[in-house]
Give the backbone structure.
Amino acid sequence: MSRDHWSGKDVLSILDFSRQDLEQLFALADEFIRRPGAVEKSLSDRIVATAFFEPSTRTRLSFTTAALKLGAKVVDLSPDASSVMKGESLHDTILMLEAYSDLIVMRHPSEGAALLASEVAKIPIINGGDGSQHHPSQAMLDLFTIKRLKGRIDGLRYAILGDARYARTVTSLLYGLSKYRPASVYLVSPEGLRLRSEIKATLEGFNLETQELDKIDDVLGKVDVIYMTRIQKERFPDVNEYERVKGSYRIDKATLVKAKGAIVLHPLPRMNELAYDVDSLPSAAYMEQARLGVPLRMALLDSVLGRTKK
Ligand code: NCD
């Protein structure tokens, strides 16, 4: 299988990859799942750096686990314990990580931070989330999960519920879906959490049709995938705006009675929008989604770094 298009590349946005690239990635992740004993230590002479300027559980730890499983060593910046606290610039911090490692996985609160890092460093940068802009590996994981659980991505009906305004997971998933042919995409959110107009315009440019709705009840029973997100409290420029939409949507076991066969995804962490009583339903797929983060990110690291020359 040719992975040349991935080799040595920055992963800043899912938009930079074709459907064929994504399918190659998913096939490799499937292979890692199918034959766990046969995984080659393709990164045994490599060092992966993680630099998370925003909190993270799943993205940081699944990248770390993925790197370790491929034989790489991992160094972690921990900004709070680094010279970032003394005021060192992102530019200089990235130059240091470049000197110490072969690839940087970075999360940052500022949009465009990953792009800046990629301009500074000659080694590949994987964007683990930049502000409310991109989160490419999450969208790849979301599509991979849908493919594994539903057998396909094309032709399905999607409801994306929650914070379409600030959640980078929503934007990135929509960008990812624009490479496929979903039957329908419903964006379900209250007024203050609707998709930003520039994102809507971008999606229209890709011919991805979306329909905006207020209430999930309107589409329950008509969708195959329900993708939930928490309200991104930390991104609201005005706390009053947050107060207005806080607690405005929630799914529990009773809600899902009408959801016939739909799977429920969530990038996590969940707040009160997703009740714990959903966990026991066969449709609850978010924990499996989080688990699949390891093979998917193994495939990503292997594709980007496994075959590059030192
Ligand atoms: C998401 C993120 O950081 O964008 N988390 C994740 O990576 N799984 C979602 C969120 O924080 O709500």
In short: The chain has two domains: 3-132+292-305, 136-290. Residues 217 and 255 are 8 Å apart (CA to CA). The first helix runs from residue 19 to 34. The longest strand covers residues 47-52.
